[in-house]
């Protein structure tokens, strides 16, 4: 039996509960929510599976050592004490990232530099050779988390952030982060049991993430590499088994996923990304202006979209958001419509009362994911028929 160890999955603000649920569903042990992170137990195979399958994780960290530190000598000595050559070879490049809230040190670059010196000196002492630093695309990423006097050294098993799924080759002016898109879809209750529409689809991120959720396709199936592949203990055969087992759990999808955008460049890029994600049999993209459309299906419709905020894309906010409300009211009965915006003032112009508001962050912009329930006929008529 492979040995279990503690891991940490990093995520976005507000996504901790859905990431914890994902981890439990995957089979993680001892799942605990933190702030922008969830910790859990698993073996090396589970570390591979977490990187492959989690939709709302940005990084999977493997903590190595935790110690108290009161001065720079203690930092150096504790980092030097780690048997670094056991973890990776001297011909690999590495980078050290430091996140800190400490009274001992006031410069994260200095902490990274001191730790780098200790690591390199250890390699020289043991191997007579040293690995080189690469800030651009290192083979090995090491994370230092310094809080007050407690220092945690972790190996970053993911490398590049897990939002870089590998399917998005074309983007528009304001693309939404893939992890953010997946998390918003899960928060909206999307499970693939209805028809889906993104009426302002941009480069197609919501469509693709919705398709992968609907078909239970692993989130990072299109990604080619992870940092754990450069570790000394990487088991390529085990990794391949986990990929195959995860693909065997995909399911059929019997509804429609539709994307609209009025910009020809957007629909072209979205189609390229959908093709790249191998989801073109499930997703249809059309060049349409949402404000001139009607509901494209007969049954219930699940809608999620990211309208322009007026930040990077210039719009007349009052007019634009007013049209969103009018279009939903007049042309989209039987629809649960969710939208995310950082322009909280703009929501006043929609002219509809949201049934839910969830705080989220799009990058550094504090945003709201809001739900508008559009009934079949008026609300009054619905209640009348309910009481007959």
Overview of this protein structure:
It is a single chain. This protein is of the alpha/beta class and 388 residues long. It folds into two domains: 5-156, VC0802-like; 178-217 and 245-381, Rossmann fold, CATH 3.40.50.150. It is 32% helix and 24% strand. The chain has eleven helices and 14 strands. A seven-stranded mixed beta sheet has the order 2-3-1-4-7-6-5. A seven-stranded mixed beta sheet has the order 10-9-8-11-12-14-13, covered by helices on one side. Helix 2 crosses helix 8, helix 3 packs across helix 5 (108-127) and helix 6 (178-187) packs across helix 7. This is RNA methyltransferase. Residues 46-157 form the THUMP domain. Keywords: Methyltransferase, RNA-binding, Transferase.
